[in-house]
Specification:
Layout (H helix, E strand, L loop, with lengths): L9 E4 L9 H11 L9 E5 L5 E7 L4 E7 L16 E4 L1 H8 L24 H5 L1
Parallel strand pairs: 1-2
Antiparallel strand pairs: 1-5, 2-3, 3-4
Length: about 130
Amino acid sequence: MIGSTRQVTVWTYGAPADLRKGFDGLSALVTHTLERDPLSGDCYLFVNATRKRAKVLLWDGTGLCIYAKRLEQGRFTCLWRDATARAVRLTMSELQLFLEGNTLVGRVALSPAPFNIDSPQKPLAARRR
């Protein structure tokens, strides 16, 4: 796993990417499409159209690193379900789950929706009478 002792944000390119690209091509996608700085220290995840290959671009403080993974069986989770999203934000834990081939990557609501009462409440002073 990509190790780090600091808090790192993972930005996922929101469309299938051409993974023949190297450092310069992936950096250009980060700069022009995601509108982020590839030298910020964040991770940038790219997946190809068949979802069998993935690359992570990371600035480690001294240079850019590319981590690549090819699945021999199965496919990576589809991260571009929303056609309007240019980027999907993940945590490092979600990135690890993704790279392990887990299908449960993304946000899951853990709390119920806030409870709202439709009828207006009487002011507190009116209730005391």
